[in-house]
């Protein structure tokens, strides 16, 4: 597995940096999205289920996850990981002064499981080079690559 990246210039935000100093950072780039339809199709091809069955099960999973997260449960999904709801609050001077309006927006916390942690640990990186601005030579009949202009 190789993650695509490109190098970007950004201001140096370290505390001992001079104003205007810049550093170069690697930034991961996703090149495409896998739609829900395509994901279900890929799962169906790896099983005996039809795509409609896969979609039905995934939608059912999401419905149950919503219900259980709203109840405050931790959802354990084996090697995939765990999901749970958290929310912090502002403080109150006394217990009697505290009410639910002091809560900040709730968030869903996801903790990757063993499978995804293994993928993360074994990641490699491949730089995406920008296309050259120089004009390339015209294509020959035996060359099926497009001319970049």
TrEMBL record:
Statement: the UniProt record of this protein carries the keyword DNA-binding: yes
Q: Which UniProt keywords apply?
A: DNA-binding
Stretches assigned to the HU domain: 1-122
In this chain, the stretch annotated as Disordered covers 127-149
Identify the Pfam families for this entry: HU-HIG
In the record, what terms sit under GO molecular function? DNA binding
- The protein's superkingdom reads Bacteria
Enumerate the NCBIfam families for this protein.
HU_rel (TIGR01201)
State what protein this is by name: HU domain-containing protein
Q: Which organism is it from?
A: Parabacteroides gordonii MS-1 = DSM 23371
